[in-house]
Amino acid sequence: MSERILVVNADDFGRSPGVNSGIIRAHEEGIVTSATLMVRWPAAEDAAAYARRGELSVGLHVDLGEWAYREGEWQQLYEVIESESAEAIAAELQGQLERFERLVGRQPTHLDSHQHVHRKEPARTALLRSADQLKVPVRHLTPGIAYSGAFYGQDSIGEPMAEAISVSALIAVIEDLPAGVTELGCHPASADDHDTMYRRERLRELETLCDPRVRAALDRAGVTLRSFAQLAAA
């Protein structure tokens, strides 16, 4: 495939009101085409209501917990399940899938996970099994869909990298896209309203994703924006 197709996916939909409004604005005014929903959080119902009435392609952001680098070490902010057994993770995943369908009224268009925990076992096998049953892609793991995490404003221990989420950096990502389908992850928000190690960067991401120079760069580079739902329908 010589065509260059870009899916821009916003993680953490449903995490907080600020995340919800940021993702919605980045979809309506910017280049976000898809999002992944965290079904366990109170703002998930509002996010799902938007998904039901709009054109945003929504998948499941599997949530098993969160870690943050603070005071020189990784600290766990919360834990969804204590067990790391395959059975416990499969059961939690099934529960989140069922809640997704109750909230949104349809199955997810794609799967990924909070802080990419599904890149390792046993979550990896659990998500692949569910994706096979649903006939949907999984971030990092589905052949033919590359993943880029280049648009992220921190390094591996949370030190800020503001330049990575600038307009010029996003334009460079677009210009350097390989042929085929690439998913670009992002985390926009309109307010800093929840406890996480990635906070103020979300506000900067939102402004960058909505900057008209980014849309112009897509047109200039001949890159086609698509959602996961559109990929499935093609």
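(ticket continues) Second input and output from the same batch:
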Amino acid sequence: MVFGIEADIVWTSIDGGDTLSAAIIAPIASTTQNVSQRLDWLGTVHGRLGYAAHNNLLIYATGGLAYGHVDYQYSLTWGGVAAGDFARASESKTKTGWTVGGGGEYSFGRWSLKGEYLCYDLGDEDLSAQAFSAGVPGSIVVFHNPDFETKGHIIRAGVNFKFGGHSRQPVPLK
């Protein structure tokens, strides 16, 4: 059996968004909603527990903490007779969650090849936006509560080189 702890951090360009436009009562009223989410960076600290087969193949399971910085954006605009009505909400924060996965590593001398799968989940985020009427300052028209999920999958491969002097052999017990 082999166990260990691994930590990593990566800057990402993971983002996504969607726009929904609809004519409510054409041409009197229409609406456009925009949502977007961006993961700026993602890190993990996770334990590895595995089995070393044939002295050079390691198969392992892994799990632990995931953390990352996420930006959430929501906007709603109205057109037609009520043109200019809007609702906006945004949030930018570092979130924590979990990661779980597995992988394998094959060693040949000081070099090894590694393949790994991780699933991460930083949880949900609910924003609260109030729609205001442009024609009546300060009037609240309606509340909007968009819900975001921040989770994903990572597949990665790597080549490792082991620095250091001599490899240690186990000392026999007497």
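Agent notes: The chain has a mean pLDDT of 85. The chain has one domain: 2-161. Closing as not reproducible unless the customer responds.
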